[in-house]
Amino acid sequence: MPPPAVQAPALPAPALPAPAPGKGGRFARLPLLAGRTFIPLGLFARLPLAMLTVGALTLVTAVTGSYAVGGAAAGAVGIGSALGAPVLGVLADRLGQRGVLLVSAIANTAAIVALILAAYLISGVQDLAAGAPALAAAFVAGASCPQVGPLARVRWMALTSRTSGAGRAAGATSAALDTALSYESTADELTFVLGPALVGVLASLLAPWLPLALAAALTVVLVPAFAVHPTHHAVVRTPRRPAAGSVAGTAGERDRCAPTPARRLRTLAAVALPVLAMVCMGTFFGSTQTALSSFSASFATSELAGLLYAAMGLSSAAAALSVAYWPRRFTVNARWIAGGALMAGLAPLLLLPATALPMVLVLLVLGLPVGPLMVTVFAIGGLVAPAGKLGTVMTALASGIVAGTALGSSIAGQFAQNFGYSTAFLVPVCAATALFLLGTAAAVVLRQRGKNTPN
Predict the structure, then answer these.
(1) Which of 250, 342, 372, 447 is most buried, most CB within 10 Å of its CB?
(2) How far is CA 2 from CA 348, 386, 387, 440, 454, in A?
(3) pLDDT (tens digit, 0 to 9) for every residue of the chain, 455 residues total?
(4) What does pTM read for this prediction?
(5) Distance between CA 296 and CA 300 in Å, rounded?
């Protein structure tokens, strides 16, 4: 069995909101659990991340006139975010969320301002090498982007554990955590639909630099407010490892607590499966977006792809909210397998439409299993995370989506360019199938770890 989770220390009454009473609907209890300001702060503080990639693409493309340089800038943001998110998660686990979020907010704001300035310094440049200053700034902006969404999930897990009175594992099975994770997935979906749309409106009507300037302003104002919100007290830091010569505890106690190689391997496998699932989920997202661009360009313009993709985002968000009301006997293992099977079965429908309206209908239906599956994978990530490593695992899951999105966009773009959009749609079909296969493997691993608890 994995080492026991470290219990949260008792906190003075004013430090955290009082536990939610058993009144009102499930979502109405969330503000009572975390405080009324936590939800709007967590929602809008993550908006800059959703604006950053498209904002870099829009600005650099506009000032250079080169799609290659603009695409490279967007790619640099994605790579930076995929690499930087787990590092920020590790630091948050060890040092506490508040300090890490404050420093990353300042660093990210400075990097975004540097990106705006660097973009105008390379105005008219058509060569990637000459665009290096903007690409470097874009990479730093992605790497330093505050991981509000993953760290908010860590706070919800800690808060529900606190109210359950039985440690993290009990909290992870609570209806309150189901509700919180359902809301978080919906918030992610909404911001990643709203963010690019906001960039498009501001850049086209006012100025191409304005979306990034707004992202910087939101970061420097909202992220610090999120960082110092009292909920950060609920999260326990990773305890320091005792020195080799420490006399604390007997040798037998240290041997019993020390993880064996077999235990480490099982823990690694249990964590790797949801991370790989999020890479596949990102691949599904990125390849679907790219294939839709090629699809819409075949009868209208590629810009229509954003509106088409929003249809899947809206149904996914709505379905994610429903998870809070699913029966407790529907275990996380069963949810993953069922959601993956449904995605794998529905994804081939993307190959059928030839016009916009049928594609909208397909995307609305296809989005139904996506949101619940994301809620489930994040919940499983919380179940299998080693004690004190929740921030690391949550940010690794989020960076998996980013990395997968870049991978899916790249592969589907090559297929669309060389073989057409129908071939490009095979990429999300394969990604959905991989999600189902990973779900079956996760069921075996979780059962062996004794983690198959209803959630």
Answers:
(1) 372
(2) 40, 7, 8, 22, 19
(3) 344 333 334 344 345 544 544 455 778 888 888 888 999 999 999 999 888 887 888 888 888 887 778 778 888 888 898 899 889 988 998 899 999 999 999 999 999 999 999 999 988 777 788 889 999 999 999 999 999 988 998 898 888 876 554 444 444 346 788 788 888 888 887 787 777 778 777 887 888 899 999 999 999 999 999 999 999 888 877 665 554 444 444 444 444 445 666 667 777 778 889 999 999 998 898 888 878 878 887 887 655 777 788 888 888 888 888 887 888 788 888 999 999 999 999 999 999 998 989 999 999 999 999 989 988 998 888 888 777 788 888 888 888 888 888 788 778 888 888 888 899 999 999 999 999 999 999 888 877 765 444 44
(4) 0.76
(5) 6
323 C-beta neighbours (distance < 10 Å), count: 24
- The Cα-based distances of 299 to 105, 212, 295, 296 in angstroms read 43, 32, 8, 6
